[in-house]
Design goal:
The chain has 197 residues and is of the alpha+beta class. It contains 2 helices and 11 strands, in the order H-E-E-E-E-E-E-E-H-E-E-E-E.
Length: 197
């Protein structure tokens, strides 16, 4: 066995010990900088899309308010048609049953509506999908716990060609001026508005 420090044969040059070369260091900063710029571009792109979507929603709401049908007109959304038949003056309490009677936080506005199924299949109606819009553009949810006092049922499965009469109850601040009702055949439908004044 030969010793690497000494030549294996007389006259041969001594062998130098082998040291592996250290790996070359790669520059990391261009990758970090590139990733940062991509993140900034994605962030600004997302913000621009969000602002554009919000502006589109506002414009759609304004157009919808301007195109509200007059009260008494039949309007359609999805599988249902809706016709407002009456709006009662505001009241503070609804119901005769002492256990179910409901007192408003402000006052109740009661809107009477006929709901008809215009499709070829049964469809479930939910009062909770309907909204009241006041003259300031504020949206109010339907008060289903108050509705128990003025409707035989809160929901109804309506077969094709059939119609039910429902009363919508909205709890609004005293003095609110109702401007329109927005009707929906489901929670995800576009909706259609009927003017109340």
């Amino acid at each position: 066995m030969s010793n690497p420090q000494y030549p294996a044969h007389p006259g041969a040059a001594p062998q130098q010990p082998y040291y592996p070369q250290p790996p070359r260091k790669r520059k990391v900063w261009p990758w970090v900088l590139g990733g940062f710029f991509l993140a900034v571009i994605a962030l600004f792109g997302g913000c621009a899309a969000l602002i554009g979507s919000a502006a589109e929603e506002v414009a759609k709401n304004e157009e919808s308010r301007a195109s509200a049908a007059p009260a008494g007109t039949e309007v359609r959304d999805g599988k249902f048609s809706f016709t407002v038949t009456k709006v009662d003056p505001p009241v503070t309490t609804v119901g005769d049953n002492q256990f179910l009677q409901k007192t408003a936080q402000g006052e109740f506005i009661l809107v009477y509506v006929d709901v008809a199924n215009t499709s070829t299949v049964a469809q479930q109606y939910f009062g909770s999908n309907q909204k009241l819009i006041d003259d300031q553009g504020r949206e109010f949810a339907n008060d289903t716990s108050a509705e128990i006092n003025v409707n035989e049922q809160l929901t109804a499965e309506i077969n094709p060609g059939n119609k039910v009469s429902m009363v919508l109850v909205f709890d609004v601040p005293t003095g609110t001026v109702p401007a329109a009702v927005e009707f929906h055949d489901s929670a995800f439908s576009n909706g259609v508005r009927v003017a109340l004044k």
